[in-house]
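Let us begin with a simple case.
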Amino acid sequence: QVQLVESGGGLVQPGGSLRLSCAASGSIVTINAMGWYRQAPGKQREFVADITSGGSTNYADSVKGRFTISRDNAKNTVYLQMNSLKPEDTAVYYCNAHGKVATGGYHRGFDSWGQGTQVTVSS
């Protein structure tokens, strides 16, 4: 199993910044991609950004130019720097990772989620 632990959420005023972190642990062989999703009250979970092991990134249109995703492969950790935050960015942010783990002498795929961290943008 792979565990993802997020941190860095909180309350911030509009225009402010927050940095989320997500650390993966377990019998990890490789992580192909790590990413962030968010879910606002009454809405479906939506994609925010992701990054491959090679550093390729993708962003939702709503966060392009404001959010930056980065990754430390040695630490199996992904970060989301969020600037110019807006009230509509308020949501629970979830980390996701998928790749391969070692189990019983074999490698198998995994797709894991963190427990979520609350981000609230309000004056």
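The second case is a distinct protein. As before, the sequence precedes its structure tokens.
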Amino acid sequence: QVQLVESGGGLVQTGGSLRLSCAASGRTIINYAMGWFRQAPEKEREFVATVSWDGGSTLYADSVKGRFTISRDNAKKTAYLQMNSLKPEDTAVYYCAADKTGRTYSDYVRYDYWGQGTQVTVSS
């Protein structure tokens, strides 16, 4: 089993930045791809970004490309999402997820483990 705990969410003004962290415990995640998803009220969960097991491949949603950066530190068993130039439409609960295949998928059904989420609110 893998347990994921997100942190770093909060309230920020438009144009501001936040850095989310996803700490893993339990089984090692070194072979897992790590992804970030988000869900706004009354909306479907949507893909944000993912990074392959070795950090060599990344994939981003068009809506965040150029503003968000996903990374990982396998030694610390932690994945990160650096979010810059935040917009009110980025407001959502952000979830971290782990995928056993190690590959970069945008489909949430591919992911095996999920965190509880962290709230990000961007004020206008």
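The chain is about 0% helix and 50% strand. The first strand starts at residue 2 and ends at 7.
Keep these points in mind for the review questions at the end of the chapter.
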